[in-house]
Amino acid sequence: MHIADYCRSETTIGADDLIYAPFTIAAYAIYRLFLSQFFLKPLSLLINEKLRYKFIHRGFDLVHYVCSTILGTLAFSQRPYFHCPFYFLDCGKYIACTGPKVVCSHLEKIYFFFFASYYLSDVFWISTTKDIKMLIAHHFVTITMITGCALVARPVGGLSIMLLHDWVDIFLYSGKVMNYIGLKLISDILMVCFAASFIYLRLFGCLTILITICTQQLEQPHHAKLYFIARCAFGGLYVCHCIWGYQIFCALKRIFFNKDSIHDTRSDKGSDKEKAE
User: Fold this and answer.
1) Taking the CB of residue 35, how many other CB atoms lie within 10 A of it?
2) What range does the domain containing 238 cover?
3) Is 277 among the domain residues?
4) Which UniProt key words apply to this protein (predicted)?
5) How many whole angstroms separate alpha carbon 47 and alpha carbon 176?
């Protein structure tokens, strides 16, 4: 079988697949350490010393989101619900339970574990950011939601949330990295794209998915309580988005009315010198 045909062919995700999670998390953590130490750290020597710590960690985030966005978009491209992460208003017909297990393509399964491994292994690096409490809450509800969607065999909602997350964050972290290397104009453009995509995808898009999931009266033949927990986690995730959305609106207000500079409201922790102090 050709590799493209294999990636498009259908498989399943179930509780028995979760035994692989510790191995994928460990492999991802090793991959992150290797890339950070042997690629990003040497590259950071080319920029301002105060920005090197930020460049290494946010640079890895950028590499991850570029890979994850490409992988997720390719995974969705051959599916009938390809448009759902970007326009979910007519996707109610796709959120039904697929049976005892999630039915998806092999590429979607790879994407699921790639996405989940990043979020679960990120606990070891979460102290590299400033907004630690919010990120812990965000990661917890995100993992609870997508794992719940997998176990109750309702993949489209969870996978759609995953991909729209990636499309927003690719603008955020590319904007940060451009700022660190001194390309301020490109950084400003990317941060504006981040704000626009956040408002559309994470505020409007997530809300339409949440409303659809909560209002569609479809039978859940198994794990009904777990499905309830997954929906509650999704509600918690949307609360996180609303808090960040409020911060973005406040930042936009300062930019337009107080002539403040464009910047990320979820800034990183300090530089190497600041950490030493």
Assistant:
1) 16
2) 3-272
3) no
4) Membrane, Transmembrane, Transmembrane helix
5) 14
pLDDT at 6: 87
- Mean pLDDT confidence for 155-172: 94
Residue 178 lies in a domain: yes
pLDDT at 275: 38
Contact 272, 244 (CB under 8 A): no
pLDDT > 90 in the chain, percent: 71
Token readout for 9 is 């062919």
Map tokens 């460049």 to a residue: 55
Residue at 145 is within a domain: yes
235-246 pLDDT tens trace:
999 999 999 999
Residue 158's Cβ-count burial label (10 Å; 0-12, 13-18, 19+) is buried
Token look-up 């890979």 returns 67
How many structural domains is the chain composed of?
Answer: 1
Over residues 199-213, the pLDDT tens digits come to 999 999 999 999 998
Which pTM was predicted?
0.90
